[in-house]
Design goal:
Blueprint (H helix, E strand, L loop, with lengths): L1 H4 L6 E3 L8 H9 L4 E3 L3 E2 H6 L2 H7 L8 E6 L3 H15 L3 E6 L4 H4 L11 H15 L4 E6 L9 H10 L4 E5 L13 H10 L4 E4 L5 H11 L3 E4 L1 H4 L4 H11 L8 H19 L2 H7 L1 H8 L5 H8 L5 H14 L1
Helix pairs in contact: 5-7, 8-9, 10-12, 13-14, 13-17, 15-16
Length: 323
Amino acid sequence: MLSRLTPSAFPLFLAPMAGVSDTVFRQICKRFGADVMVTEFVSAEGIFHRNRRTSAYLEFAPMERPLGVQLFGADPEHLALAARQVVDWVGPDFIDLNFGCPVNKVVCKNGGSALLRDAPLLVAVAAAVVHACAPLPVTAKIRTGWDASSINAVDNARRLEDAGIAAIAVHGRTKSQGYSGEADWDVIAAVAGAVTIPVIGNGDLRCAEDVVKRRNETGIAAAMIGRAAMGHPWIFSEIKTYWRTGVVPPPPTDAVRWELIREHCAAVVARRGNEATAMASMRARLMAYSRGMNGSRHLREQFSSVDSLAGLEEIAARHLAAD
């Protein structure tokens, strides 16, 4: 399935992250070497209503391809219908099913990670969407299990393969862990060894060395980068350089980081139209960008209240003058 999407021998996916991996950020990551994109997750009901928010989630530029739209839900018939509508509406390269989200507002609706403990429903949802979208590939993202006492990723991966899922991304934590603790790459390796479809490894891939190490040790077919890319989208090019040469390139200078920060903020303002709202939405992103920069603590204090591009320029001028 991966060879149908990209010629890369070991594709790098940008993980779908709510409030982060919008079209602006995906385009930035694509420029830095991300091979495959996945949208923020969208509910089946959102697809049916086709409101402004849903349209924004599904917006993408041609340069982002190959791109998958990620859906979540627990009603096989509804999700299959929603997936078919997405295919006809925006023409993605694949549909991705979210069986991994640990957030309570999703799980309480029997979505995301909730399906990890309901194998019949998991299979029914996957099979219905696969049938509705054929011949377009359908992928899935899972976690290692619901909690430490129910690690069932291998069994669930086998069920999903039998249901026609074309590739599986495995986040190496349980639902109960959320994003805390350490990712269990032994479980990811076990999944990679148990199915014939590609397995995409995800969790604690913080640098180029991590990705190459896990590729060599686990048999994964691709890697999915999430939080490490939030403030450091250069990670994709660093991984590829390290894989090719064995040398990790030096980190970008603060001046280079500022160029990207300005570009990112300006693009979000242009897309949203309202400068104050757009800049407020970027504050958490700016906090992520500040990691590794000189005087990062002071920068974060300033970023917490920035509300305009002009204000951002003032922060940048002061910071670069002090370097």
